[in-house]
Design a protein that fits this description.
Helices cover 27% and strands 26% of the residues. It is α/β, with parallel strands linked by helices and 225 residues long. The chain has an eight-stranded mixed β-sheet, sandwiched between helices. The relative contact order is 0.21.
């Protein structure tokens, strides 16, 4: 009987240690898809998430898929919206030029003429006798969609336009070419380009599926404060 005593004591110690073990809860993970124009709002999302783990996936607007993620962050409301939309801020959609361009201000008709191709030389928009080089985003980009609807009445951008794959490429292209003109948001604008026209004020939206879980609801409430 005495030989069994150490084994009984060891069993009791193991049982006591197991009973005191606290299981760590699994962290909630929320997946986000966002467009490049909406990237400045990611910091607010992370701040509101607290201990919730966020995974952020940058995508072009036409590749956003709310069925494959929890949240979509973008500028402007897509057509045929079937999900819930929450406005968390606004941004200005701007027309930008090179700072060395003598043109410091354009009106709506001049912007329409330049981006449609009806105006091809800066001298016809109050500038020097130089060909204008238009830069645009892809047709499905959230910024380009808004610009086309408001400025061009959904008509196409001039075929001579060059395509920027990202806001960074747009900034670089316009800052390097005195004859370049493009579009950008106020949040993304840098000192290397100049604003010559404000198109509109654009809502920044978070899209979710219906009846989001508590963690997402808490984040949305924080973002809208």
């Amino acid at each position: 009987m005495k030989a069994k005593l150490p084994f009984i004591l060891l069993f009791c110690l193991l049982l006591a240690s197991c009973s005191n073990t606290t299981l760590t809860p699994t962290a909630e993970i929320i997946n986000i898809q966002y467009t490049s124009a909406a990237e400045p709002w990611l910091a607010a999302l992370y701040n509101c998430a607290g201990n919730t783990v966020l995974t952020a996936d940058p995508r072009a607007a036409d590749f956003l898929d709310l069925q494959a993620t929890d949240l979509v962050l973008r500028l402007g409301q897509p057509e045929n919206l079937t999900s819930s939309a929450y406005r968390i801020g606004t941004d200005n959609l701007l027309v930008i030029v090179n700072p060395q361009n003598p043109v410091k201000k354009l009106d709506a008709s001049q912007v329409r003429g330049l981006f449609s191709g009806q105006i091809q030389d800066w001298k016809d928009a109050g500038g020097s006798d130089s060909p204008a080089q238009v830069w645009a985003f892809s047709k499905a980009d959230d910024l380009q969609t808004i610009f086309d609807q408001i400025v061009l009445n959904s008509s196409p951008v001039t075929p001579a336009a060059r395509l920027a794959s990202s806001p960074d490429e747009m900034i670089q292209a316009v800052s390097r070419d005195v004859n370049a003109i493009g579009i950008l948001t106020g949040r993304l604008k840098t000192s290397s380009v100049s604003e010559v026209f404000t198109v509109t004020n654009v809502p920044v939206l978070v899209l979710t599926r219906s009846d989001p879980p508590g963690g997402i609801t808490r984040i949305l409430s924080c973002l809208q404060k």
